[in-house]
Amino acid sequence: MKKIILIGTALFLTACNNFSISEDLKALIEAEPNLAPINFDKPAEIEFVSPADHSEQVEGLVPITFLWKEPILALQNHQVVKDFLSAHLTIEPAHPGEWRSLGTSGIMFEPKKAWKPSTEYYLTGTPEILTDLNYSFKTSTLILEHHDFGTLLKKTPLTLQFNQPVDLGSFGKGFSIKTVNEEDEPTTLEFDIQYGSKTNEQEKEIIDKTILKLIPQQEWPENVAYEFILETGDYSLDGDLLTDKIIEFSFKSAGPFTIDKQVLPSTHTQSLKMYFSAPVSSKVLAESLVITPQPKKELSEVLNYWIENDYTSTSFYLSPPDGVWDPEVEFTVNLKPSFTDEAGRSLKRFEPYVFQTDLDTFFRPVYFPNNFSVFGRGVDLKPTFSYGGEVEGLEVSLNGVEKSFQLKTALKKRKIWSLDIKSEFPEFFNPSGELNSGDYKLKIRSNFVEKNRYRTYESRFFVSDFAVELKQAANDTLIVNAVPFPNQEILTESFDMEFYVGDWQSETHFKTVENVSNNFRLEVPRNEFRMVKVVSGDKIGFGTPYFNDGMNVWDAQADFGDWKYNQNYSGVLFTDRPLYKPGQTLFYKGFIRALELFGKNFPLQEVGKSVNNLEYEIQVFDPEYNVVETTVGTISGGSFDGEYELPADLRLGNYHLNFTLKNEDQRFTLETPFWVQEYRKPNFLITPHFSTKQALA
């Protein structure tokens, strides 16, 4: 067995041009009668070596690999080959790992630990096998990966992060820090050098010898430029290789405490931005900030995050305290004299900020007909929009008829624009002043002064001579009924119907049926059905699945709010229904419960403990979020209720009912939406039939 191992190894060693096999081993191979003759004068050619001979900057767990173009090893037990290679091949300095064969044409050394930095490794063989072997590589030398000097104030340390552990003694002799500019007074700073720290997997602070902290023995002079230089030398704790080149970088100590930059808001939703030359406490800034005229909300409430988290930064964004800056008001932002940076320095100079904003440019609907809505002929449609800023003009198209409108600039106050379809598009109305029945496509595009900015709103709606009611049965069966509007003449007994299917991009004709009666049934793919057109004599009606679906469940939520640690109460507010006509009465009700932590009735306390005699305020907001109604009251028995009579001329759109507890340390609000629309309540005629004459005896 030993002879076979030696033969295989001899073949491997013979294959390398740099290897010379001993005469004893050669004689041993030649004495074996069953081996083919080996030509030692023409050894096998090496195909791949990694790392390459004399490589540099080798890191980590890179293996040493030799591969030949033809087999050079006899097939042997892997452990036998491993033991033999380990006994006769040596890596200096010693490194944990093991040798193994790669088939019959290669070997590999796999390190168990990362190669030591700043070290040169050599591969040698024993005299019995090799007379010479010239292979080596170098690992990575000392590299400065990161330097952090932050804001150099007082005795702030300069932090250096290297790629390997550093020897403090040799480093202290090899580095220097000197001023850069000739006009700066030459300054000699002495430093105490110590290792930094890091958090290990057990979240404990441990010393990290790759991090050095240079702590000045005197305070940094203000606004002085320096240059750090580390000469070439041996600074690594792991090896003795010299650094490849000088390590150097420039830095500057902190200047006086100033506001480097401020960005004043130009529109009513933008933030005020402040950039300081040195770190500032968010809590100190929040307590030092003064805004006049004083916002409706207390600054301490608006800046609660700054106060509670008390973080340090050089940049801060102040959002409008009341949600928006009032464009009609000139604001002044000041800082109290007590305001300082983290080092306790006052601002070198400061002048209050004075600014006044304009409205953001916007154009959004107050009322715009929903897509695929169906209306009666007598409908008075007036799509209404609110706008502000620099809206240049409008382009309106109704069934291909186009018109343009100019809008007045609204920089300081929102304005309302309504489209009077009857006066602007009279060609679509009959002599009685009613909108003709048919299929309508309305498009409104607002062009902004800012280049390439615009908003477009599109709606497809239908005007119908009678109601078309749709029901969805099993197997995608659609049931169609044509019903006259109240106080209108009876329809014909038979109808013609056209069905259309498609998706949001396109629509195609599906089927036409003639002379069918009510309760007509047709299988139409449920997810593809778009609309049906019903003809009764000279009258036309339309039905769409979107219009007949009714309102979404989330339009009238009645759930207690999420329980939160930072609130004292939870509650629910709801209206008697989600949809109203102008002139109707809205009824609302709410329940409030105090929260308790892990008590008997967690998370809500019993009624009566702390939810009685609490004053509250109810406000109604219109679609533009203007307050149109305010009511105050007192909670009794953990609940409250009330009503609001909607004016007959109330603008259509989405409204909000807002509840706020008064005289509480923490702001607590509830809100629920409701809609004001012109609509027809569906009518149903129910005719019961009993299977037996007598159900109960």
3D architecture notes:
By secondary structure, the chain is mostly beta strands. The strands form twelve sheets. A five-stranded mixed β-sheet has the order 23-29-28-25-26, with no helix packed on it. Strands 38-44-43-40-41 form a five-stranded mixed β-sheet, with no helix packed on it. The protein has a four-stranded antiparallel β-sheet with strand order 1-3-6-5. Strand 16 and strand 17 form a beta hairpin. Helix 1 crosses helix 2. The longest helix has 14 residues.
Overview features:
single chain, 697 residues, mainly beta, five-stranded mixed sheet, extended
Order of strands across the main sheet: 23-29-28-25-26
Strand content: 35-45%
Sheet with the most strands, sense and barrel status: 5 strands, mixed
**Uncertain parts:** 1-41, 548-566, 598-602
Regarding quaternary structure, what we see is single chain
Note the gap between the termini: 107 Å
Radius of gyration: 43 Å
What form results from the Cα inertia axes? extended
- Mean pLDDT, all residues: 82
Number of strands: 44
Q: Summarize the amount of helix as a percent range.
A: under 10%
Number of helices: 9
Structural class: mainly beta
